[in-house]
Amino acid sequence: MTPSFIRNVLLKGLLLFALIHFACALIPSDGLGRISAYNSLLRGRERFPFGETPREAYNFSLYNFEAMFAAHRLDGTPKAADEFRVLVIGDSATWGTLLKPEETLAGQLDAAGLISADGRRVRVYNLGYPTLSLVKDLMVLERAMSYQPDLILWRVTLESFPRDRQLESPIVAHNPQRVRQLIERYQLAITMPAAKPTFWQRTLIGRRRELADLLRLQLYGVMWTATGIDQLYPPSYPPAGRDLEADESFHHWQPPAFPEDGLALDLLQAGMKIAGEVPVVLVNEPILVSNGENSDIRYNFYYPRWAYDLYRQTLAEASSANGWKYFDLWDLVPQEHFTNSAIHLDAQGEEMLARRLIDAGLIQ
After folding, report:
1. What pLDDT, on the 0 to 100 scale, is given for residue 360?
2. Rounded CA gap, 62 and 64, in Å?
3. Which of 20, 282, 295, 352 could crosslink 290 through cysteines, CB 3.0-4.6 Å?
4. CATH top-level class for 30-359?
5. pLDDT category, 362, cuts 50, 70, 90?
6. Is 345 within 8 Å of 96 (Cβ atoms)?
7. For residues 89 and 69, what is the distance between their CA atoms, to the nearest angstrom?
């Protein structure tokens, strides 16, 4: 190996690296996210990737929206002619914190063997994602419409409605372009910062964290496929509080009323426009109703009584005025069936919710 040969090899290697480095800037994140081993070499996930302990749960949070969908079993399930497809969207209660996939609302509805009014088999998919934000739900809903749903179940709770909290969810903050498109398309009363990634941030080195996350998602998919584990199930956890503070504030709002336009009800209207002809059922999900200290002031850690009662009234009136199909199940589940949060149900609580929806004939 002569010096000139070594020099030429190094120069060609550097040139090739430079080409790949800068060519990466031309590839959109969504394009990279679609490259996935899930639903082919690996089993599709029952719910979106999310978590903080990947070595134990074989799951972690990433912010590439297309990669999240590409990893989900829905992406690898062509819709059969006899399938009635139901998508369930919402927050961590829908995703199923401390629940196995089959114990979630979507899992229990899917296992119920339901038949639609026109004789099709009901199949239910969990598209919940932890964090409380209606904008996040809109992002999921808009992308999910390409999978030809026949019904959308949209679980909501008051904590997702404050307008000034809509952009705080990390998945929202890390997808500004997608959010800006939603804002422009549906004239949402929300402002997304206009900052765009620089050219350097879009290169191979600038995107090394994103690329590493995409690779890690595939690697942890091997263990998910082998075990079916996608979160930790600790033997014990701090239970949701029953003894509460004598505090009537909600997001610094004081009784007896919300600030004008404080609740982002226009985002629900946008969701109905996104769904188009596909029916949407709004479900005000169960909350923990405490009987502990100061429970005459607050229902739970999240909600003072005045704020939650006003929210229920406001949502019911908006649903009636707009012709939205709305089901209010706020007090369906006794407090002993909540786990580590005032909105997280145990498996029995989710079963109560599923049975009530089935009995109400909402899935048809």
Report:
1. 92
2. 6
3. 295
4. alpha beta
5. confident
6. no
7. 13
